[in-house]
## 1
Amino acid sequence: MGSFATRGEHAPLAVRQVAPTRSHANKRYLVLGGAGGAGKAAAGLLVAEGASVVIGDVRGQALEEAIASLGHDSKVLSGVVVDLSDASSIAAAIKEAEARLGAIDGLVNCAAIVRHVDPLETPWSDWERIFSINVYGAFEAARLVAKAMIAKGIKGAIVNVASEAGKKGHTQSLAYSASKAAMINFTRVLSEVLAPQDINVNCVCPGGMATDMLREVAVAYGDLVKQAPDEVFKQLVSSQLRRHIDPVEVARTISFLLSDDAIIIRGQAINADGGDTPY
């Protein structure tokens, strides 16, 4: 069903400036997919809030550039190359992160890929590639970090970054949407599994965030509707905010879910899409 507006459009709402607290003082985190977007923003915010962070990403040069741009001391921020489609690479990265940090208090699972194609033309290889990273790799990372935390008696948190696509689905990215729905589901189950060890598990579902991935969406949609990608990108905004979501706004949600303040929020898929998803 379409919609009919009885109110005029309002001006875009400003990104609010929030001073970092010391809510993660002396905490140690691994942020996967941390070379850009919400992952990079989360890593920077967590360090500003007192944590030590290891960023993991498959893109070596982007990883170096992200660390340099965040500008923190190597004692509190470093990077490791990891391929989430390779179980041995995930295990090695977690082992390296634990060695650098001493222990891991929490994980941010932010790495993902997306392919845009007509759903009836989605090749088998796309499903395999997308699920190998967005689901199998993400779960393997969560599983191994949880085991490392349990071995050291650490009570912490895991935050998976899904997407509003995991709830609503998008026709031109069917496999991606399904992978994020799977992440939402395994978050729920893993939360219950890890509750006895007091490891909290939640996921965040961002919407139209100003990232390279959204620009890829704009290119794909632009090809379909014969519009310039920049024009399409301008339209991929929150209906309530009237603008793109800033990665730091999603990072704040991630930070909160990692903290002890979120102890009663468990196994949830928190919408961080500016009000576009109703459940």
## 2
Amino acid sequence: MATPQVIAPLCAQPGSPGTQPDVTPTSGVLHVTVRHISGFTVIGNHLAQHRGLSLTAIGLAAHIQSLPAGAKVGIKVLTARFPESEARVSAALHELEATGYLHRSRVRLPDGRMVTRTVSYNQPGSTAPAPQPRPRRSEPPVTLAVPPPPAPPREAAAPPPAPVEVPPPPPPAAPELLPPAAPAYVPAPTASRKQPAPLPQPHAPTEELHRAATALLADLRRHAPQLTLAEADIEALAPGVAAWLERDAHPDTIRHALTSDLPTPVKHPAKFVRSRITTLLPPPLPGIADLASPPRRKVIVIPLQNCDTCDRAFRATHPGHCRDCRIDAHQDLHTAAA
């Protein structure tokens, strides 16, 4: 009786086995899940949590998978439906094609028109299920009645045997249906790309022209930081600026032509400067002989003469008779001859 008896169990320590932990996280997202009855789409976590796709591509894939068959999913339709630009929608479609969630191909219809066919896959790498043959209606077993054998003489007739059930023959195996072959991709016709005009070249290149042209091109970044050119681009564009200087164009004039009204942003400074050097090249200055007024054309004045018969004035290089007197004299000559 002197030894105390411990009957009550010890208190459970925090974190010991047998205790119920708190399942509510202290941070992060909390889910309130309600079971959908209608109007929902099942999307795998391989798409919703894809680490190689952008948010725009994941959302676009979810939208396409929720659409019914035959819905339009062109870039123009998606741009009108969502606030993203055509460039972002096009980039998202290319991401889905690269990861296998989307396949686009150009097919020719029976009437000759070319259309784009889009196939959406909720599981990349899967194929469209082949149509299964329709099962035949089960036929009742065929029962063949076997006539009883004749009764032996002077004996009681034996009971007729039970009918023998013969199972129906198995249906012929359906031929294996292969999945339809994917339509051949026909690229859309593209217009021929126009070749850029050649860079102008000076007629008499000199070291002074080349040095002045390279200095002017290197100095463009002081006036327009967008036109910061690489050293190789300056060497390639120097002959075009030398052609301007050879045609007596002032350096300030060239600088103003290359740096005024710049687009925002200038994606390719070297191509932009090359285009302006080529398209805005001024003609050579005219010479003094070209600016002189043309000489006057010499006017020949026919002097006046007095007719020897009627004393009428008429213009002629030599004295004689006027036209009327010559006609009268000709008529008198014919009359005398008649």
## 3
Amino acid sequence: MTTLPADASLTAKDVRSRIVAAATRLVAQGGSGAATTRAVAEAAAVQAPTIYRLFGDKDGLLEAVAEQTLNDFVAQKERRAATLDPVADLTQGWNDYIAFGLANPAVFVLMATRVEGMSKAVAAGLAVLRERVRRIALTGRLRVTEEQAVDLIHAMGTGTVLALIGKSGVEHATLSEDARKTVFSAIIAQQTPAFEQGPAGAASALRASLNEQTGLSPGERLLLDEWLERIARA
């Protein structure tokens, strides 16, 4: 195994990054079982106690691997410029997420099962998804509330990747597309404009633009947001 040269001038942040990078490579090559403390220490050219000092234990290290990998993916999503078609952008986001999970199966499983709570990377990823959903809501085509749409897409996307891991490549595109169409048809109306869908679509559109309304006091905006959410949920 190729190890990195030791360097006494490295800061604690540098050493941490080097350890996470070494562990990420090992996980990608052989799953979480390959990222033993001994193997990671050797690959990163550090002593095992350094890993325990920085990460607590192997679980802490694996969580750091999942967090960093997710953070890198989210950074790529944030750099993608929006188009004039919000549904196409949401579709691209779905495809990117599925492709990311299938390209990094071991790391994705860690990400889905070991990153607890609302980490910065998870929050950033959901913020990107939430913005894409909000753009659809502004067109009046959202059948449900923005919160429901985000939760459904996130849950379905994660479940789809986990279901596809281990299946043949032939099944990947078909199952992913079927899952996407199922969840999108449940949350997005096909007609444009979709105010014809009734008050729910109109309420979602107005709620999405509520922060831009300057003629309301904070209290009035909060109350109207609650009313519009009830209508959208109905």
## 4
Amino acid sequence: MPSSLDDNEIEDLDPSTSSTLDDNGGDAKAKQPSTAASSPATGEDDELLNVVRDVVTESRSDQAASPAEGEDDGQSTDDDKPKEQDDEDFSDVPFHKHPRFQQLLRKSKAYEQDAKRYNNVQTFLDTAGLNAEEAADGLSIMGLMKTDPVEAWKQLKPTIQKLLVAAGEVLPEDLQRMVQEGKMDQVAALEVSRARAGVNASQVRQSFAEQRQQRQQRTTAVQALGGAATDWESRRRKNDPNFDAKFVPLQKEILFLQQSEGLPNTPEGVKEQLDKAYKAVNEQFKPANPNPLPKPKPVIKPVMGGQVAGNQRPAGDVSTLDIVRANRRAS
């Protein structure tokens, strides 16, 4: 047995294992008969050549039947098509990346920012003691100062005149009369007017601070009363499964107590009034039976008389002896 392949066998093996075999698949078939004829190998070498040829032939047949990986065979499949995003479900994205969730998140942040701005403006108005109409007039005049100064001065002039008097820059009537009568010169009268304005401003600030404190106390008291009522309702809802059925009668009872006894002004008074109304409602409340007893079934009366199926009573007057004889004949 030869120990190695000769040159002719190498020439036959080389094109069979070449990388260009896929492009020249037809040449391999043409070379097979000539290779078999020209190869002097026998035994194991001949068997090795046959195995190599079979493998190459099978590989070529598989590649011809299915296109090579990465090549376009002209037919598109579902995997090759780009995955379209579902605008309705978005089931292919995580929840926190869902477009609608992101949209709601952006809206929530915008609403939060708007609410913060509104609270800042409202807090300033409450601190300064301004109402909505006064704030709107001030903003309107400031806008006119940039676009129409003449109209802005017409609207602002009465306010300026009041401000000059309140600040002491314009003499009041009594000081003007004293200056006209020569009892006081203009400079002294102006100093007295400014001193009066300072005292009045101090009194106004003190009064305003007291009023603001009273408003805050009233707001805090109202919040405390509302919190007491909310806590009472939450506790009752948790402990009473029939609270929803009692809610409307309870509201009527609370309204009656408020009209007859007045509104409570402390959290303890709120709870006492609610307990009183709740007790009155419980005395008249009749809960529906969730598991009513089943209605008794009608009693089935036994059938009296008649005859058993298959046995026919003979017509006419029949004696017992006739019945026995008839049964013997039947048996």
